[in-house]
Specification:
Blueprint: E1 14-21, E2 28-34, E3 44-50, E4 54-59, E5 65-73, E6 78-82, E7 85-87, H1 95-107, E8 109-121, E9 130-141, E10 157-162, H2 163-171, H3 178-189
Parallel strand pairs: 4-9
Antiparallel strand pairs: 1-2, 2-3, 4-7, 5-6, 5-10, 8-9
Length: about 200
């Protein structure tokens, strides 16, 4: 019998949770002792990265170019091609509102048209993070307000890359940031942007 390809909500019993790291930031790390449903077998330890979720914005201008950032990421020791993105760190704020805010704060843009591209869990074996992807169109300049870029963000640069070039760079591995790859592939698969043809 064929099965439908969809995820389902499920929660296994947790016997104990211990904080391994928790401070004033929005991300924390805990260790849970989990038991399989029915109680058969011993409990086992799983690490959980608590994460409020994130948004990723693929901003596409009238020439079919994507607003990209180049930003240094210390854990990977690499400067990545990225998209405007940010955390859902304000209580009660909808993902599309966070996307609007991040686009304005990071690159000084606003968009009249917003299209949801999809949502994915970044690494569900360890993290609760759920990423929400949006396509932003009909762009115009916007005031950042009192937002100030700090740390790595203060060093990032903004570039406009034609969508087919970015799509090709994702396919051949020159661009390896997962949120960029997912946003580009989702936009191409949904026919929202013209992709580069794949060579046989």
């Amino acid at each position: 019998m064929e099965q439908s390809p969809y995820d389902v909500e499920e929660s296994w019993p947790v016997e104990e949770s211990v904080d391994l790291h928790r401070d004033g930031w929005v991300v924390a790390l805990r260790a849970d002792r989990v038991r399989a449903p029915g109680g058969d077998g011993p409990a086992f330890r799983r690490l959980v990265l608590e994460h409020p979720g994130a948004v990723v914005v693929l901003a596409l201008d009238e020439q079919g170019r994507v607003c990209c950032l180049r930003q240094y990421r210390h854990p990977a020791g690499r400067r990545f091609v990225e998209l405007p993105a940010g955390l859902l760190d304000q209580e009660g704020e909808e993902p599309v509102e966070v996307a609007r805010r991040e686009l304005r704060e990071e690159v000084g843009l606003q968009a009249a048209s917003w299209t949801p591209l999809g949502s994915t869990y970044s690494s569900p074996g360890i993290s609760e993070e759920k990423m929400h992807f949006f396509l932003a169109r009909d762009l115009a300049g916007a005031d950042r307000g009192d937002f100030e870029l700090q740390h790595e963000e203060a060093d990032m640069t903004v570039e406009w890359i034609p969508f087919p070039d970015l799509h090709a760079a994702v396919l051949d591995g020159r661009v390896q940031d997962a949120p960029v790859a997912l946003a580009v592939l989702l936009a191409a698969a949904r026919g929202e942007a013209r992709a580069v043809p794949v060579e046989e």
